[in-house]
Amino acid sequence: MDMQRIPARDGDYNLKNYDKMRDSFSWDEVKKNFSWNETGKVNIAYEAIDRHAENPDKKDKVALLYSSPDREEQLTFDDLSKKSNQFANVLKKYNVKKGDRVFLFLPRSPEFYASFFGILKTGAVAGPLFEAFMEQAVRDRLQDSEARMLITTPELLERVPQEDLPDLENIVLVGDHNESSDKYIDYHKEMSDASTDFDIEWVDLEDGMVIHYTSGSTGKPKGVYHVHNAMVQHYATAEWVIDLKEDDVYWCTADPGWVTGTSYGVFAPWLHGVTNVIRGGRFSPDDWYGTLDKHNVTVWYTAPTALRKLVSAGEDVVKKYDLSSLRHIMSVGEPLNPEVITWGLKAFDLRIHDTWWMTETGAMLIVNFPSEEIRPGSMGKPIPGVDAAIVDNEGNELPPNQMGNLAIKKGWPSMMRHIWKRPEKFQSYFINEWYVSGDSAYKDEDGYFWFQGRLDDVINTSGERVGPFEVESKLIEHPAVSEAGVIGKPDPERGEIIKAFITLNEGYEDTPELLEDIRKFVKTGLSAHSAPRELEVKDSIPKTRSGKIMRRLLKSWELGLPTGDTSTLEE
Length: 571
Ligand code: WTA
Prior knowledge:
alpha/beta, nine-stranded mixed beta sheet, five-stranded parallel beta sheet, 18 helices, 27 strands, globular, binds 5'-O-[(S)-ethoxy(hydroxy)phosphoryl]adenosine, AMP-bd_C
């Protein structure tokens, strides 16, 4: 499929000449943009917030433009600086120290962002959780990280299984509540008592900043650990790829429970002192177009699954809104369909720029730059300072147009520094000097990378990574389910949907009511996006002789594909 290539349009882009920049590039140049380069004092909260609050020309600029269907609020850099200082004081009062893990289980709200930077100012490591997580998902993450403190709302508190969390000393509650024990801290009360001055905890570039839990094909979700040094790459990519300028109004649609929502929903725009739109509530085409229109958004970072929904909603909906401020669009999380790019040209008269990266990589690695030709279907080219290649299973580089493992040469600034408490898991990502992504891809003669699929069983549904093991584990907790095998099944809108094959325990019958009950069980126990959309009862689940579920075989059956090598199949 050789779709029409889309040339770059004329424009005053921050990155004008990719080849030239790549050839002469050094990360040391980027470091000159940070105050720590001179002062030696590091904390990303200072670079993203306080530095602007100290600047008389910047302090009253709107940093956070928050809106949701029932709340509107604007915070300047000065406001955010003070509020995060107050929250840092609250944390300090309750003995939070550098290196402690402090988790946030909050809807997108001004309180989320004030608390998030408050945590960073104490030198603690912030762990944001997606607000749709249910009990099991919350338990796994808080247990594994040994979180000391959690910030949540009284409504979400019931999903926090406190009896299983011995390390959790305090819980900050945002909102009205009747909890009286010393364990609970009232956010609004403590904030109003707290000073707006705080002595920020200076840390090392290699000290912990954020933990994001993400799924692999085996085991529980793993804690991907990022350090303050990541800011170097957040800053650079915000300049070259997001093309941020002083007067931009930027909107990243990702929730801060996922890496895009922190790296690019928090750090990238604020390191540049740009106004950042945060929209709470759920997706709908009218809501999203309305947000672009109302706030005069100029730069928009979103995801294929949302864009596909906008395509389905049709062009009449777009025409109701004035999107004339919009000048630049990017996408991440799944393959960006060429059809969506074609539609973007019609609907917005703009190119949509695909970007590729992962929770583990901390920031964008392979991207389409505004100043470069787009080849629809390609993720683009590596950013300056990053070497990407296609390698075989021994780590040897493959020639152009040959499919293999997409790999990145170790050592980019925002790379995860470890997987929390699982050094062997961390090591398993690397072959020699290469970080191996788990994605398969090829590179064309001109250095454009083309995504082909995942090499493991990880499911990507609506841009969210789901580990089959987590879903299988939850399924078999249901009294009716004996065994379970979970796969991703291709779906035009969601990329993939989750399909579960199950066997039933004696005494249970395969009825629509039972299947619905099982589905709900996963939905309310784990999270809505992990609940199988399709459930099928089988007499047995194919396993290897060593007892591993053969998901690949389930997938071949489902898709009517040849089953390949089944020699390890259990009798
Ligand atoms: C997939 C999200 C195709 C890929 C930042 C990767 C993509 C996984 C793209 C990481 C893209 C991400 N084209 N696939 N542009 N971007 N992916 O950790 O399989 O939630 O390995 O990070 O999403 O998902 P994660």
